[in-house]
Amino acid sequence: MAEAPARPAASLLWAGHAWLPGGWREGVVLRIGSDGRWAEVTPGVGVAPPGSDVLAGPVLPGMVDAHSHAFQRAFAGLAERRETAAADDFWSWRERMYEVALRITPEQLRAVAAHLYVELLRGGYTQVCEFHYLQHRPDGGAYADPLAMAWSVVDAAADAGLGLTMLPVLYERAGFAAPALRLEQRRFAASAEDVWRLHAALAGSGRPLVDAGVAIHSLRAAAPASIAALQRHAEGFAGPIHIHVAEQRAEVDDCLAATGARPIEWLAGEGRLDARWQLVHVTHATSAEIEAVARSGAGVVLCPTTEANLGDGMCDLEGWLGAGVPLAIGSDSHITRAWAEELRCLEYGQRLMLHRRNVGAAPDLGRPSTAERLFERALQGGAAAAGEASRGLVAGARADALVIDRDDASLLGIETGRLLDALVFSSPGRPWRDVMVAGRWVIAGHRHPHAERIAARFTAAMAALHGEAR
User: Fold this and answer.
1) For the whole prediction, is pTM greater than 0.90?
2) Could you tell me the residue ranges of all domains in the chain?
3) Is 332 a catalytic residue?
4) Burial of residue 40 (number of CB atoms within 10 Å: 0-12, 13-18, 19+)
């Protein structure tokens, strides 16, 4: 059983400053309902109401980590050497990643994911979308419970106190011309029918803070007929549908050779896309594809630090922002685990590519702050990616919040109106004093109540996976 890591917050809170839709507001009263959602958010209240808890600093909404492979946290930092003269790229990294995927047990996965999820909370995320394709035993055979690996992730989220959107993944072949998976992909196999059964079991589990959508690994890993079958199962389903797409140039070239169309072009041309779809990476997209995604209502999920780490390339940020496409961020392979680092990497990549500064700003739209514009877009895009109706310090949204520590060294002397600028573009620090998920403090005074035990289990799992004692 998962430990209960959080204490309930008072039902009535007051913040001297809080980020509401449109920007910072002063004197904000936040009332939490019995369902763990914001029942009332009222700005302009100059004095804390009687009986309210006064929050220790300015307040931001919690962010969604819209793309996660939790098991890859066990591999973070361990693929940063090139031992041969051969070039190192995404595809060689993937071969080494498979080694971890083939070894990890359900118990180890829970230990790794729980530690990761505490780190995500410390990084300002309060919900994670888990793109889950580790389904089977290391030999490829089925577990007695087909959800054995998925329950490890669910239990890990409960250990940490993080909200979770589980996304079981359609994964059936090794490439466009391959009829089946490679041997080292044997733990990943799942048909459209399998995915829908896994989704139904997760969605109906009644586990607190757990939602479920579905995912397709990629066009190279799922045949068109299987994608169509999953979409038929999902008729009437309003939740999210995620897919890796256009991450690598080789993937684009292979798709062109196999189908006569680029990956995003193919999805749009087949009429697959709608507001439920979340296109992950979209590193290599044309202006016509961006326009097609905008017309469909689909969203995109960018993973800047992973895309940089793997040498994927850089997306057309101005194109996606200008088209009004919903935009979320994800930590993917978890080489970093904080949304501020993702936004900083996203903007800095654009600056390096375009030789300009503040690419993400839009002064003509009244948004001169790059950090504020990217934060607000990622906040709302993350809600759609997680299957939430709304996110933020607004009535009806889940009561998630980040209390900023104004005493953090990176924020000293920064006025409230520039806090987001400093959070994203000043030196990394430890900015979140308190973190709330669904009306409960999961981190208070920088402390997670079970962090030490979770870290010890993680250390043991890493020693077992990699054969080294601490």
Assistant:
1) yes
2) 7-61+393-452, 63-386
3) yes
4) exposed
